[in-house]
Design brief:
Blueprint (H helix, E strand, L loop, with lengths): L14 H4 L51 E7 L6 H20 L8 E7 L4 H15 L3 E4 L3 H14 L2 E4 L21 E3 L4 H13 L8 E7 L2 H13 L3 E8 L7 H7 L6 E5 L2 H14 L4 E4 L6 H6 L1 H4 L3 E5 L5 H10 L8 H18 L4 H7 L8 E4 L3 H9 L4 E4 L17 E7 L2 E8 L9
Parallel strand pairs: 1-2, 1-3, 3-4, 4-5, 6-7, 6-8, 8-9, 9-10, 11-12
Antiparallel strand pairs: 10-13, 13-14
Length: 449
Amino acid sequence: MTRKNKSRRSYLKTSGAALGAVGLTGLAGCMGGNSGDGTTTDETTDGMSDGTTEEDDQSDGSQSQSDQPIAMGSILPITGSLSAYGAGMQKAVNLAAKHINDAGGPLGRQVKLVNKDSETKPAKATQKYRSLVNEEDIVGFVGAASSGVSVPLAQQVAADQVMQVSNASTTPALSQIGYNDDESVKYFGRTAPNDGQQGIVMGQILNDDKYIGADKAAFLYVDNPYGEGLAKRAKAAFDGETVGMVPYSKKSSDYTSTLDKLFANSPDAVGFVGYPGNGKTILRQWSNGGYGGEWVLSEGLNSKEFFQNNKSVTDGMYLASPSPESTKSADTFDEEMGGQSGTLFAPHAYDGLFLQALAMHKAGEASGKAVAENIRSVSRDGTKVYAGEFQKAKDLLDEGESINYQGASSPVDMNESLEPLNRFAIMQVKQAKREELETIPRTYFEGKL
């Protein structure tokens, strides 16, 4: 495949802030930052999804382009601070490759999947990405997991004409990154939700009289780009007066002065973007200090254990939570993934590879640009197809029919930014249990991000 030597996109509207974004946010804001401990290299992570080695599948030069495998990759956190989730994510991508190849692959060609370990480090992931591009000549890849790792990769993919689909990076900044120079093609997409949706829901809880109906609100957020970005989204969605935007440090153990600043202008309510570890200390010091006010919690604090351990403090608090519709794909995925089916963002990883293969088959071309230009169309309108139904999807496309892939993670109907809108739920904590008060359909968010 021939690539154009393009200059990098000359401007990135919000990449500066996003570059340091912490790990998985939104559904997993509590999962931590973008740096792991130690330095490791890929060992058993590279290879075909069916267990063959890279050398076993190399072309000897006698094959035509149409007979050769299509090189794809994954860059996921097998080691580092998110290593607890990487193996499940990678298994999901491998499962998607198996389903695709069992059906003959896109365009009648097998997918050669080369898995790389991001080590949950931006610099290491960038090295792995460059090796996939320069040595494997990949068309596209799934990853990375954390936003802080995905952003520097997304800044490179358009120049390389490689499609990137992240399964777990939720920072709003990524909706504006990954375009080519004239912004006609976007080479970054994701199957995870945009945190902008969560900010809208937090604002709605603060606004609505049937929940809080606050005239004045303050926002408390973990002092990193994830926390600040989501707090700003919630502030923008709040109709009343914002009387405080207060960051907190994860390294602190006494938040009295932070709380004093937060309540200096007597807010009716607080929007809290944080993690359970520090959240426990903050909320207990808030309760003991008698500050008053109502609270809206981000999804990063949505932990069953957190609510059980802080039952007397969190009772009555509100929560904004993604609540994606389940599809038949989820049943197939759960059955074949076994004990790892519940790995956070693993179904999103499966969807990321499956959608790219569908886009190639529709385009009739195995290239990053073909994926970028067709991935949205196979995710939205047409006959519904599900996980494990690659042959059915190919047959429909070959007959000139439109298809609507219903993912293992959600319906994954991609918008113009190549990201899905999720249904959300407004919840309230009652006796350590989360009670759903209202669901907000995906259509509500159209045009709002």
